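ENTRY TYPE: protein
CONTENTS: sequence, structure tokens:
***
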Amino acid sequence: MGIVFGPVPSRRYGLSLGLDIIPKKTCSFNCIYCEVGLTDNLTIERKPFLKLEDLKGEIDESLKNISHLDVITFSGSGEPTLNSEIGRMIRYLKKNYNFPVVVITNGSLLWMKEVREELSFADIVEPTLNAGKEETFMKISRHDKDIILPLHIEGLIKFREEFKGKYFLELFFVKGVNDDEEDVKKMIEITRKINPDKIHLNTIDRPPSTDCLPVDEEFLLKIKNLLPDKTEILSRFKGLKTYIEIEDFILKTVKVRALKIDDIFSMLKNERKKIEDVICDLIDKGKIKEVIFNGEKYIQGV
């Protein structure tokens, strides 16, 4: 499997080179809103799915051809902390490259001491909180049987106490699932207890794995007003360039998550007609497909 994807524009971190170190949809959660798809392997068993040696050659080759980059990010198509090699990988990147290393995680394994220790070498770690009540947590995350909300929260808090880098926390909301008064109140209480460096408010932005819906901007604004000034609503990405060939960029990017066609135009900064021709050709070849979500066209990997 390909480990490196992008660079892709991130609404949070600028231009990011992604590292996908887990087999597709191996995760401790099976979130109803996941934009990558349903979880095939629901587990909390950590394994060396890919080893540092697998990463070295691919990342070294990729970085030779990139003239601008803001961060290197562990994310992709599964939960990255399930890979027991992630600590070695982070240390290698920090030793050999001058880019900040980001780990985007659901936070479900932060109660494990070894996971907290391995992530301690990263520059930024951003876990997710998506529920304030156990029943909501189960409904939205559909998690591994060994994970319960108090354990999840305990891990989020312990990591905050120990981590020396920047701790960002994502609060993710789904309409009609975790947007009731009680859930919101408890999520805010937990967030205040964690006291992250930055809070990101997020909702569904790309086609999810089930028929769930985003909350509206007004709701997120209300939540923002209840939290400290370091709270941001994640806005649509605009205007960053990529520096790799159009077809390769599209294939690598939409393999991981769907993208709006307009976002592809914005990212590539090439002639619109040329990009449209590449997209049509890839669809005809069966390498990508077009899907509709909330009335907008997205391109998705096959």
